[in-house]
Amino acid sequence: MSGHSTVERPGPSRRTTAVRPVPPSPSTSATASAPGRRRGGRLSRLLGSSVVQGILILVALVWITPLAGLLLSSMRSEQDNATDGWWTALTDPSQLSLDNYGALLKDSGIAGAFWNTVLISVPTTVLVVAIAALAGYAFAWLEFPGRDGVFLVVVGLLVVPVQIGLLPVAKLFGAVGLFGTVTGVVLFHVAYGLPFAVFLLRNYFAEIPREMLEAARMDGGSEWRIFSRLVLPLGRPAIASLAIFQFLWVWNDMLVALLFADSESQPLTVALQSQMRQFGSNIGVLAPGAFLSLVVPLIVFFAFQRHFVQGVMAGSVK
Questions:
Q1: Using CA atoms, how far apart are residues 282 and 275, in angstroms rounded to an integer?
Q2: What is the dihedral of CA 229, 233, 234, 236, to 10 degrees?
Q3: Are 141 and 212 in contact, with CB atoms under 8 Å apart?
Q4: Confidence bin at 308 (pLDDT 50/70/90)
Q5: How many Å apart are CA 217 and CA 3, to the nearest integer?
Q6: Cβ-based neighbours of 88, under 8 Å, separated by 6 or more
Q7: What is the three-class DSSP state of 261?
Q8: Which of 3 and 266 is assigned the larger pLDDT?
Q9: How far apart, in whole angstroms, are the C-alpha atoms of residue 219 and residue 233?
Q10: From CA 63, how far away is CA 142, in angstroms rounded?
Q11: Higher pLDDT, 30 or 44
Q12: What pLDDT is recorded for position 111?
């Protein structure tokens, strides 16, 4: 009959379905393994920072140890330096004195060479930075005939080695009376330092947004005012870097000074090199002179580095 319903009764022949375990979803697995990943990330960061710090400490020790040895040797007498090593001063501070530096200041040759180095390095750095800043701004933002061609010539001068120009420039300086003078050495360094300096500052100034310069021109600012009040402050990181490297190159130079400077205008590097022939008897002059030649660039580097970091942070805030 249509009104009856059929009821299925369980019997022995009924099959049972096995229940399979449901694998956890990806989100569940990620949630469960998140603490492990966080612990692994913290451990990797800890190990990474420890390794980096250890490497930096090792590099600092390797670099500082010769500097410390030179400093201690410059403060010991010639007899003590000839008897034992500089490290003995760490346990016997009575060996240390400033007598060598007093004798160095009384040595007219070394003292004069030090001031010659200052007279060569400082004007060269100032001239290179000033001329390169003006030229870099002109190549980046001023329109004049032949600008790209002249800039290509400047870039091409980067591949000219210094050794190629030594003999021709020496003959030229001899003809005009600049050979063997501080002025001749300065002019040579300026000439060979300008191509890289112009290339560096031009590329940096070209990254300044055009809208800033156009807004300054619309406000009635002249090119000189825009350069001095806008471009120079924005270019302070590049200018500081250029000043650091240019000063270090000139201060530590010996090749150009050997050729273009005479005994009256020789810098400290040449004066110390001439003392190397009698190293054993001149250690009391060489050690303080070498340390003085080394510590001045370090002071300049860290002084300009402060301005460099400030410029970078100011640019990042903007």
A1: 7
A2: 150
A3: no
A4: low
A5: 99
A6: 80, 95
A7: strand
A8: 266
A9: 18
A10: 45
A11: 44
A12: 81
Residue matched to tokens 């501080």: 182
Q: Do 140 and 234 form a contact (C-beta atoms < 8 A)? A: no
Most confident among 4-8, 65-69, 200-204, 285-289 (mean pLDDT): 200-204
End-to-end CA separation in angstroms for the chain? 90
Q: What is the mean pLDDT of residues 65-75?
A: 85
Q: For residue 180, report the phi and psi dihedrals to the nearest 5 degrees.
A: 80, 20
Highest mean pLDDT (candidates 1-5, 54-58, 130-134): 130-134
Query: To which residue do tokens 């807004």 refer?
Result: 215
Q: 3-class SS at 6?
A: coil
Q: Measured between alpha carbons, how far is residue 139 from residues 56, 236, 256, 290 in Å? A: 40, 18, 29, 41
* Nearest-angstrom CA–CA distance, 318 and 305: 20
CA distances to 83, 99, 233, 258, 295 from 254, in Å: 32, 28, 34, 6, 17
| Pair 268, 110: CB distance under 8 Å | yes
Q: Residue 183 corresponds to which amino acid?
A: T
Q: Does residue 265 contact residue 182 with C-beta atoms inside 8 Å?
A: yes
Beta-carbon count within 10 A of 11 CB = 6
pLDDT at 190: 94
H-type alpha helices, 84-181: 99-106, 108-141, 147-156, 162-176
Query: Taking phi first (over 0 means left), then psi (-120 to 50 degrees means alpha), and beta for anything else, what does residue 180 get?
Result: left
Residue 231 identity (one-letter amino acid): V
Query: Tens of pLDDT along 276-287?
Result: 765 445 677 778
What is the spatial distance between Cα 282 and Cα 274, in angstroms, rounded to a whole number?
A: 11
> Alpha-carbon distance 86 to 74, whole Å?
9
Query: What are the CB-based long-range contacts (under 8 Å, 24+) for 158-165?
Result: 158/195, 158/196, 158/199, 162/192, 162/255, 162/256, 165/192
